[in-house]
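Same chain as my last thread, 121 residues:
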Amino acid sequence: MASPPAQPSPCPAQTPEETILQLALELRAARTEAKNHAAALADANNEISMLHQAEREEQEKQISQVDVEREFMETMIRELREKVDKLKMEKGKLEAENAGLKKKLGATCDLEVDGSPEVPR
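reply #2:
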């Protein structure tokens, strides 16, 4: 006859000291895991902070560049307005000089662009 299969012996019950030791090991592992997660979160927060700082610096750089360009354009506009004003004054002087020359030449004779008098018909 064959003998019945061997039954595994049941696990002996843990003593209170073994239970406490097991729980302490699990708590230590959980604390270590929590510290690792906290360190990973801190690293992620630092990286986010660095990215935000880089974004702020880039925005400040762009704003500064726009300010420089705006100042340049304002200077150019002011200089062009001054040139236009000078040209208007010069035009007024030339028109006054032209009117004086027309009076000297008489009402029937006008000056051409090249300076030669136009012959009346």
